[in-house]
Amino acid sequence: MYEVMSGDTLAWKGASPRQSSTDPSHETEFTGDGGPVKILKVCFCTNNNLGKNFKLVKCDSSWKIEAIIRSILVSGRLGPNVELSKCYGLMLKHLKSEELHWLHPALTVGEVEQRYESHHVEAEWRYDLRIRYIPVNFLEKFKKDRSTFLYFYQQVRSDYMQSHASKVSDGMALQLGCLEIRRFYKDMNAKGLEKKSNFELLEME
């Protein structure tokens, strides 16, 4: 059982899609039935701003969205041993407007082009890999999938910095900043923090 989220991580919906909470080890073959070859640039949520990290996925028009997602997860770009593949979704966002679309896993690349991309110039669209579905008892599930847990954290952090950081009080911002420093440098001793490179990185964060 999963709970579905809207485009903003911090805004939740109450629906639950009918998906199994268990993920088979091999869900989708990364092959299609042919068609025009296309290179999709799929952006990730990382410590940097969204769009600074990405993977180019070579596919054809018959590829399904679920195959694109799975090909990214098994590549190791998000981390090792991603088990909760059903948590992920692709969001297609138009960069010059507020138009965005969550892409159904069963849609093909060709169908996405016909339904959405054809309405605007191709360069104005961006594919974002995001956590779309949250499993019931997600804290327990995420303990077994640290890569997905970390990606979910980065997504929440990115959404907060883009949409909510300017609206909180100075006191709340200070507390959140201290928690982030504590997380980022949890394994560093005092001598390591005295290094200029580490101090500059801390100041930037």
UniProtKB/TrEMBL annotation:
InterPro entries: FADK_N (IPR041390), FERM/acyl-CoA-bd_prot_sf (IPR014352), FERM_2 (IPR035963), FERM_central (IPR019748), FERM_domain (IPR000299), Ubiquitin-like_domsf (IPR029071). SUPFAM superfamilies: Second domain of FERM, Ubiquitin-like. GO terms for molecular function: protein tyrosine kinase activity. Signal peptide: none annotated. Residues 1-32 are annotated as: Disordered. Keywords: Kinase, Transferase, Tyrosine-protein kinase. Residues 38-205 form the FERM domain. Coiled coil: none annotated. This is Protein-tyrosine kinase 2-beta.
